[in-house]
Structures
1.
Amino acid sequence: MELREVQNRFFDIYGDGEAGSFHSPGRVNLIGEHTDYNGGSVFPCALSFGTFGVARRRDDNLIRLASTNFELRVEAQSSEIVYNKKNDWGNYLLGIVKEFQSLGFKLGGVDVLISGNIPNGAGLSSSASVELLMSVILNELFDCKVDMVEMVKLSQRSENNFIGLNCGIMDQFAIGMGKKDNAILLNCGTLDYKYIDAKFGEYKIVIGNTNKMRKLGDSKYNERCAECGEAVKQINAKRPIQLLGELNGIDELNEVSHLITSPIVKKRAEHVVSEIARTNEAAEALTNGQLVKFGQLLVQSHESLRDLYEVTGFELDTMVELSLAEKGVLGSRMTGAGFGGCTVSIVKEDCVSAFIENVSRGYLEKTKLVPEFYIADVGDGTKRLV
């Protein structure tokens, strides 16, 4: 839906009157996967498409939530916010209300309509998009004056504590702090960051949706978090750390890897530490215009996610394999949590049409699934529009 359509739908549902309009992007992570909750480097960018929101304050304490993407509508009193599985998608917005209240803000009622064009379950962070959207809505409508970095943090806390998913901070940070035509090199342990020019010249960022659906909370995401935590616990016997990202590269990991008793946990740690190094190297390569090297690092990332972290699967591996066989492709990898979702490829602009046609045909033959492709433009972070 376009913004005007969402605005009209809002008035159909809630009645006429002044209302604010907002937009929150999706995100794609170019490289740096499963490093965020380990305190390492990531390299995401906000996308030009995402989630629209229209909202206005009420005179009572009733919160009413509606979406053009789902039939379910949710209502709750602002003074009685609790997680309820029946509220489904609405919990992502209600959790944000709870977090603002935990900071001492007295929030009243609000009418909200959201409309997203991020495919659910594709790994482009539809959940973080609506979290930051609701954060900016509340911040604006109730004049809370919370800065964006704090809204990023409280949105992550909401997903951790209210939703129950042990996500890192990358998704929320990329969506809240996004900047047009720039990727963000972010150290998730310190929140130090810098913008890197993400103009790829004659190449395009092409996102491939495998349409292998997965719900993150039902996946092995939390299991991988626990395995990394076990690695940290065992390494602490010799080298006190709180997160794997504190290790100074693969050489230091090799010095302490004998302390990790499980071969599987050792593989997880090897991926995390090597992926952090690849991410920093990739950002430097892009800064220097070394696109071939950047593409090679994407491929290495996918191989590590496949062999060491084991979060790819048949569909993602098939799409990456087909992508790398195409003319004009510098690199391709899975992006997001894995177990389904999307790939990201760097494709020469005049090869994009053939790339999409050929990969679509080959993928359908091998998986019996119909993929979708998006030519990604790098957009701004969450903001009020009018």
2.
Amino acid sequence: MKTTIFILILFFLAPLSFAQNDTIKKKDTLSYRIIKTDGSEIIGKIISEDRREVLVLTSDNREIYIPQHVIKEIIPIKKEEFNSLGQFVGEDKFATRYFITTNGLPIKKGEHYIQWNLFGPDFQFAVGKNFGLGVMTSWMGIPIIGTVKKSFRLGENTHLAIGGLLGSGTWAAPDYGGALPFATFSVGNRRVNAAVSAGYGAIWLSGDGSGRALTSLAGMVKISPKLSFVFDSFILLPNTYVRYGSKYYNPLIALIIPGMRWHQDEGKAFQFGFTGVVVENELFPLPIPMVQWYRSL
């Protein structure tokens, strides 16, 4: 009888013993982003984890059990992803773009997006490793411009990209076209970065063409979980050219665009900026703000 009771006790204790051994207690001090299948996320330290659930200690000292089947991804957070107030800031999902220009960072695989402008849409697709293709146009389909960009990682926080834009006047002006090969060098990451770009823009109409060198200085910093400061510029350098025996001078023309990006939700952002036009040494503010919407595809 005693033997039977002893065997029964072992029988009931064995599963408990295995369950305890299956639980892994975390001893590190890292914080983690726990992204759920519904797109929401929880930031905190992992106390323990087993096959069924994860126990998380949040920043406000709450302990939350999260079932494993609702967890899409667990990502460790670096110290630099927190601001001075201890808030998790994280990456800017659209960190590869400013208002007009781009930088050396590549679009992450699968993170295609569309940038809605007042004048029309701009689609961007990550079609390969560090390689993206895009197309932009107006609501009238005039012009249609294709884009291409290939990024190269030079160091932990330095990137170089080469690319180009090629456009046509389409149905309204089939003889009109343009091309803009460019290169851009950027320093930073997807939370804070700065970029300098250079290229040559050429326009042709019925076989008669002209072009100008251009450059850009741009940058962004994500200052809180919901806000990023964005600065962009587009500078046409001055030049002198000869046509039909006469000399012509093109002055320096620049667009200067400072603004803010509001991260509404995962994969959604609203961006607005104030545009100034510089002609030689004079600044003229434009009364219409730059307004854009970002959406993940």
